[in-house]
Amino acid sequence: MKTVLSGIRPTGNLHLGNYYGAMVNFLKMQEEYKCFFFIADWHALTTHPDPKTLHSNVKNILSEYLACGLNPEKSVLYVQSDIPEIAELYLLLNMQAYLGELEKTVSFKEKARQNPNNVNAGLLTYPVLQAADILIHNADYVPVGKDQEQHLEMTRNYAQRFNYKYGVAYFKEPTAFASDQQMIKIPGLDGSGKMGKSEGNAIYLIDEPKTIEKKVKGALTDNGPEGENTSKPDYIENLFTILKVVSTPEVVDYYNNLWNTGATKWYGNLKKQLAEDIINVTTPIRERINEIKNDDAYLHKVVTEGTEKARESARKTLREVREIMGFKPF
Ligand code: AMP
């Protein structure tokens, strides 16, 4: 069975973009593939998170993943820092990673430009750690956004170099998991192109109904269409994009018709409907998140079992890699 792997950094709560852009696909993947979903807490260290909140951030994401429907009976759920084999593979793969290439990585250059006072070696070798995450389970597919494609390409390079250097066909070359579904991009309500936590325009799965209503009410609009069958400006199109994923086709048609007839003064109703439908999607998830977050025994069980499965797979890889490289026990 093909293997899928995806990691997420514990740096905030899941929003609608994460849900429709990633989670909905994960829920399908876990029915068809052997899936590894992990929380990348080592990756979060590049920005030196506060030790007081690191664990609760990991717990939040784990609770949210479970509440969304990731099933620990079907998928392997774990926390990166519980799998020491990843760190060892990272060390070994560092020997296949060349400084010039690492320095040229787009994400590295961007982060270095944004935070010139924190250009640490962990940031430079971030793609190597990511390669270790993937190769430790010899994953076939990695569902990644456009911004991560370069890192996946680097993973393939390290896998190829390793195979070539040691004359083996050991590591697979992982590919991006692409489906039509994955292309869904949820816009922000502020007229910007993308919903994101760093953009400050996100509707979170844990947001209370009142908060969601307020956020939707504040979405950028105008005085209405300037005639019949005009094209929608981006910020209105954005509202329809979200409506399409949370509402029924009838509702979407209804508001599209209003737009096309050139009618005005219906944005208030549209926003009310949009908020209501978002709340319908998020309410059961929010309730489960709050239940799971308070169930330490359940979380402990999920992580213990996930760690065991992940380590079994990781130990096997590392044993074989060590053998290929010539490490031998006395
Ligand atoms: P992030 O929380 O920004 O690291 O995103 C994690 C994953 O969620 C990304 O790789 C995307 O697959 C997905 N994602 C994030 N924001 C959006 C969005 N606005 N629309 C669709 N998918 C998104």
Kindly name the structural category. Answer: mainly alpha
Spans where pLDDT lies below 50 across 5 or more residues:
none
* Overall strand count: 5
Average pLDDT level: 95
Specify the helix fraction band: 55-70%
Name the ligand types. Answer: adenosine monophosphate
Strand order across the largest sheet: 1-2-3
Helices, by number, come to: 13
Tell me the fraction of residues in β-strands, as a range: 5-15%
Order of helices and strands: EHEHEHHHHHEHEHHHHH
The biggest sheet, with number of strands, parallel, antiparallel or mixed sense and barrel status, is: 3 strands, parallel
Q: Termini separation (Å)?
A: 36 Å
* Computed CA radius of gyration, to the nearest angstrom: 22 Å
The gross shape turns out to be elongated
- Oligomeric description of these chains: single chain
